[in-house]
Fold this protein.
Amino acid sequence: MDEDINKNKSTWRNGVYFKLDEGKFETYFIGHKQATILEDETEKNITEAFPVRVSKPYSVDKAVASAVMSAYNLHSSEDYNIFLGNLANKFRSDSNDADVLAYDKFTEWVRSSLECDELTVARQRKISEIDLYDKSKAVEEFYLNGIGMWYKADKRTTIRNLVESSVKEGRNEVTLWTEEEPILPITVSCDLALDLLAKLEVYAGDALAVTQRKKAEVQALQSVEEINAYDITSGYPEKLNLQIS
């Protein structure tokens, strides 16, 4: 907000950029979410949003139409009318047509985002922050012989299948690999690997439970002040710190 070079033309809501007045046009920014990008080999947290540019005088219906033209790459009112005509034909043939349902879902999202109040915006922003924190190393990390690492759910399943197959083949050890540089091999017994996976699965489940509980608690808060003050970092289980010889 302090770095806004268009302060006289900008509207902010609960710490997120909501509207830019461009004279004959207004651009609204909806669906704010946190994301992580790599810039100069350094991770940087940013806020992404979907822009909706509409000519004045503003109306929600005009904004929804503008959002549809942007999302579906329509360049003129003629393109827009043809697009709606094709959708109408699909609806007459099958009201559950995938394209029709996708269009309805998108326009409902745009309309509700433009009409939502400050409390809803604050909830969306805080829940996005919770999701980002849940995916960060603050949660998704454990230590094995002092090395910080993480295996996502699909990788844990792959490793478990490998270990169980190794046992069936009469092998006693399996080699695990770190996910980030420096990529290092860690050789452990199959029994120890299964024990590690079990502990990691329980940890991941406990962490997910905390994340879901936090989202539910934010949804239940009834003031912007309470939402802004909500601590997204507390309550997570202690990281696993495993040592093997």
